[in-house]
Amino acid sequence: MQKDFHYYATYCAAFLAGYNHEESLDICYSAQFVDLCTETFLDMVKGPKAAATTQLQLELMDAGGDPLSLQEMTRIWASFHFLPGDLHADRKKCSKRYRNKYRLICHPNSELLVETVKSVKGSSLQAAGIAMHVLADTWAHRNFAGTPSLVINNTDFHFDELVPDDPRGDERHGEETSGTGRYRRRRITFRHSVSAEDDIVNGVYINSPFQTNENSIMNLGHGRAGHLPDYSFARYAYLPAWKDYEEIIKDNPSDYLHAFCQMIYALKYLHGNVEDFSAGIYDSKAVIPWNDEIYNIITKRQLDACDDWKALGEKISGREIPDFDIGKYQQEYIEAAPDMKDDTYLGKFFMAALKHKSMVTSRIFASGNPLAGISIDFDKKGFKGIRDYRKLVEQHTREALK
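User: That's the sequence. What structure does it adopt?
Assistant: Structure tokens below.
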């Protein structure tokens, strides 16, 4: 997903869930910041590098394909952008190496998603924002894995976009998506360019170059499918190797609407308006007054829906939503005394990111999967494993001594 959904749509969901304007801004800022908190940024503000929630292309290029670099990629991308759908998924007649990657494929409504939301109950607004980013991405990024893999993440020539025959007839409850009737199939043309934009009129999209190396960074996440998973209007069909080349039809409008309604439900739980959070529940009642406007935004064929989501958010709350500013909280963090940094906005974000990454990595490791490295539950057994989480242990010790 992009800023339009992670920032502006998350603001709408938070406000509809019962948070006030200022709280909703804190939540959506944190949700969007997940896509920007890189090691390069952390170096600049002198924050903990282990709190990185994404990686720049240059950082990925420098990382290489050694086991430790691949584990670090997996910790970041599987934790924050491609939350594994089933860490114990079975796969007959395959190698353990392949099965480990297969078990990292992202799907919504997983046990890990439920734990992600429940684990931040009573925590900071920053933690809630991170959880909403993770939740939303499980819908946009489903069927791809947050670890480099040609077998899991590659696409082939059979990759079609399902385009409405008449955009004005793109109704909410679509029938069978096929080459006749409501949608027409159009073969997608992929190209590799660092400067060009996607051409949604002619079906020409930018993706990562094909690399035969299984562990190439070009095969990380949905790079081979370009930005199609990040566009709410997109409907596409392709043949993934991990599904034995059985066609998958991805309906982003439906998935994004589910993501939005699930965010409202999750945020109501975090706010204390509902008692429990379970998988497969969506608060569709909360969007009834805005249903047509939301669906019109989701299905509108455009590269960036920020203006539309912003206008809707301001209509819902009656307040102005400021544009996202990556520098908003930098000076507060940089100028804070060492023992006060964790109490700043960015400090709370960094600690929430570390805790979430630690939780996901621990669950992956506990399932017998080594792709994210070694991680032990620090609050039960003390520090052991990845040094990323030493700061968590230090904070845990300080809090215990208070």
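The chain is about 45% helix and 5% strand.
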